[in-house]
Amino acid sequence: MATYTPDLSTILGNTTTGTTAGDTPTVITPNVGGDSIALQGRYTVLIFITTGTTSTVTVDSVRPSDQGNDNNLTSVLPATGTRRMVFDASNDRFKQTAGNIGYVNLNYTSITGLTIHAFYI
Fold this sequence. Notes:
globular; five-stranded mixed beta sheet; mainly beta
């Protein structure tokens, strides 16, 4: 399982200077055995993009939700499509407590044609 640190995303507002805007995301190529991505900032955003092959992304839950269930979450991606997940980085439900502490663990049914963008704000 490979570990990744998401990019810091620039927040645009009254204090923004200059005339250009926008971040260039680092592309993550998923690994067959899954990946661990650090939960940082206030929110960590993961964007999954498929081109040609369907995939199901599974998020490892390590603590019960406020409903009392410790269920892993899944997101089914079509053969060509995009899905986004936003994690509250202050919440411990998905933060690993052993191994890659503070990271969310992801697994995939297929990595063919799958890429990930990860950033935090």
